[in-house]
Amino acid sequence: MVFDAKVPRKNFYKSTRCPNAEQLIRDITWSKAKNDATLGAKLLRVHYHDCFVRVRCDASILLDKVGTVDSEKQARPNLSLGGFDVIDDIKRQVEAKCPGNIVSCADILALSARDAVSFPFKTSMWEVETGRKDGNVSLASDVNGNLPSPFSDFATLRQIFANKGLNVDDLVALSGAHTIGISHCGAFSRRLFNFTGKGDMDPTLNATYAESLKKLCPNPANPNTTVEMDPLSSTSFDSNYFNILINQKKGLFQSDAALLNDTNSVIVIKKLQKKETFFVEFAKSMQKMGAIQLLTGNAGEIRKNCHVKN
């Protein structure tokens, strides 16, 4: 496997036959985000799920199953992902402007996730280096154990992140993505109704908040019901997640509450309560995550259709 040491890098496409690729992707993404306040959360989650499997951000999450072998899309944690249609449309428009498989699906995913979150601010919230290639392997069996679950304890979270070259600072900063988006009831209903298997509630969860969640998500959970991950602020990318987590014990998932079980993690949470600090640290961690063992140079391919190998 050969890697080009010069990529990924800033403005990779400037020296290609599609020099305006990043501007084009941003314009398309912003036009879609203007009409869909949930797009940032959707694309950010797809990008995150892509990067944590197969230890690289290679758009393997976008591939459809082949024959009877399920792809990453069919793995249970990925069944609720959204925004694939947006990636498809961006790819179609990019190919129409720049035909010939120049711009990878992996770069489109990384850039559009950044751009969708950035739309309300009208500026890029973090830098995305480009020049990724697309992977050609996508297996549902690779997902379990690589993606943190909403039920993970701190030790599990720390190990999964460490396996990707990410530390506790990155773990806490990237958990801040829960400031936008929604969750299905099944991801947290056990905390409300059967935390230890005895019909009890998680004592670390704010009791008033828990009662409001029970009304939204009665037992058994309706698989179609969703709630905001950051109460009353689920479409606003801000530091409110850290405030409600540490001050109000309103972290929705066990994995959120788990961040309070480590001294170093708590120190980071307190720092990230300041919006400006959160934005800086989130940007750093997104750049690290987006550069996990990428396919570059002669490795991988640039798909014409993000759903299938060439």
Radius of gyration: 19 Å
Structural class: mainly alpha
Name the beta content range.
Answer: under 5%
- Outline: globular
Number of helices: 12
Spell out the helices and strands N to C: HHHHHHEHHEHHHH
At CATH's second level, what is the architecture of the largest domain? Orthogonal Bundle
**Main beta sheet, described?**
2 strands, antiparallel
Count of the separate structural domains: 2
Q: Taking all residues together, what is the mean pLDDT?
A: 94
| CATH third-tier fold name of the largest domain | Peroxidase, domain 1
Alpha carbon gap, first and last residue: 19 Å
Task: Report the strand count.
Answer: 2
Spatial strand order of the main sheet: 1-2
Q: Roughly how much helix do the residues carry, as a percent range?
A: 40-55%
List unreliable stretches of 5+ residues. 1-5
The level 1 CATH classification of the largest domain is: Mainly Alpha
Note the topology.
Blueprint: H1 21-33, H2 39-51, H3 84-97, H4 105-118, H5 154-163, H6 168-175, E1 182-184, H7 189-193, H8 207-216, E2 226-228, H9 240-248, H10 254-258, H11 263-272, H12 275-289
Summarize the structure.
This protein is mainly alpha-helical.
Describe the structure.
The chain is globular. α1 packs antiparallel against α3. A two-stranded antiparallel ribbon has the order 1-2. The chain has two domains: 135 residues, Peroxidase, domain 1; 135 residues, Orthogonal Bundle (Peroxidase, domain 2). The chain is mainly alpha-helical and 310 residues long.
